[in-house]
Design brief:
single chain, about 150 residues, mainly alpha, 5 helices
Length: about 150
């Protein structure tokens, strides 16, 4: 039963996901991305533009979604980890353009700088997570000892 092709493939996918998320670099990226999402969610109150309700609600929802996507809690399979990083890229790009796209006059200097900087950091973190998820590492059996 252990040599059945489906079980072997499933085990290989699981090992690939473990290798992608268990390195110190991947854990650092996940942590920094999670903090980026938490800051984005709280940024209207930290940066002081909570009275612009449309953008404040947008940042709250997008920040929570970004933090959940990048926390790694839902992506323990390789395909999910990789695709969730690309979804987080879209959220980072949306954060950059949202001061101009959200209805109403919310494009003040404070909101633009906040969203562009946080969106760029979020986009870079998501791209880094995608790169980590797509790295091919040798499995335990393929490693050679020196």
């Amino acid at each position: 039963m252990e040599t059945h092709p489906d079980i072997v493939a499933m085990r290989n996918r699981h090992e690939m996901a473990e290798r992608a998320t268990s390195t110190p670099r991947a854990q650092a990226i996940e942590s920094m991305a999670f903090l980026t999402g938490v800051y984005l969610a709280a940024s209207p109150w930290i940066a002081g533009f909570s009275n612009l309700s449309a953008l404040a609600i947008n940042n709250l929802v997008v920040g929570i979604a970004y933090a959940l996507l990048m926390s790694g809690g839902f992506g323990r399979a390789y395909e999910r980890t990789h695709s969730m990083a690309w979804a987080a890229c879209a959220l980072g790009a949306w954060t950059i353009i949202s001061p101009w796209a959200v209805s109403g006059d919310v494009s003040t200097t404070r909101t633009i700088w906040n969203n562009v900087i946080v969106g760029a950091i979020g986009l870079l973190m998501a791209l880094a997570a995608s790169a980590v998820a797509s790295e091919k590492r040798p499995s335990r059996g393929e490693r050679t000892s020196v």
